[in-house]
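Comment thread on ticket #2218

A.B. wrote:
> Attaching the input chain for the structure job we discussed in standup.
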Amino acid sequence: MGKIGKAIKAVGAIARNPWLLNHVLADDEVWQNYLHKKGYPQNGLPVVEPDTLFPDFQETLSVFAFLDGGSLPTDLALLKLFARRFPACHYFEIGTWRGESVANVADVAAACTTLNLPKETLLKKGFSEKHAALQGFFSREKSNITHLEGDSLSFDFAGLGRKYDLIFIDGDHHFESVKNDTQQVFAHLVHDKSVVVWHDYARNPEEMRPEVFAALWEGTPKEKRHRLVHVAHTLCAVYLPEKVETHPLESPVIPRLRFKLNIETHKI
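C.D. wrote:
> Ran it. Output below, let me know if you need it in another format.
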């Protein structure tokens, strides 16, 4: 089949199955070209080492499931350590899944609020009843966590009527959603000392995701982009109110830190 025939077949497949367009648009090469055309940093965000942010980078996670769709232990430790920065920390999260991240932060924060898609919306999107029922599995019993329902693309963030110390953006990871969530957070939820964390900025700690990078870069006000960093050994991008020492991302990474882990199981 020639190139024209393949193109016609591809257009036909997308017309019959519009969701296939996400796979086309999510292709890393497409987004690398987008970064190049826009003149954005090709290698992603500058990298800050964990012990630059926290000289004594040490934390305990009360909840970790080691299941699909979760975070790295270092991601959750980072969130808890940021939460400890603030006396009586107020935390806001977009995208909770099983609730591991907010359950851990709730151990050290005064109040946590999460925003997730309603069950009916999840079912309409093709998720199973079982999947929908697992939303907030680890967080629903915590008394200092408020679970809100809504689509972040249409949610009234201004109606929350307050600013938050720590915000975690971990909802849909396609360009429009990440850009929208970032814009809404900076427009309505951030104060002058707030920290904003994006999950899955990186596919792994040594490789950024160009689509997510492009979205959070465009969603962040221009005057604040110089405070965006990638935290080494995590999947997270972070907006910091202060300047920190950074270096470019280089892969493969020569390790200069090692982490000590103690793993134990607890019945649920």
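A.B. wrote:
> Thanks. Noting for the ticket: The radius of gyration is 19 Å.
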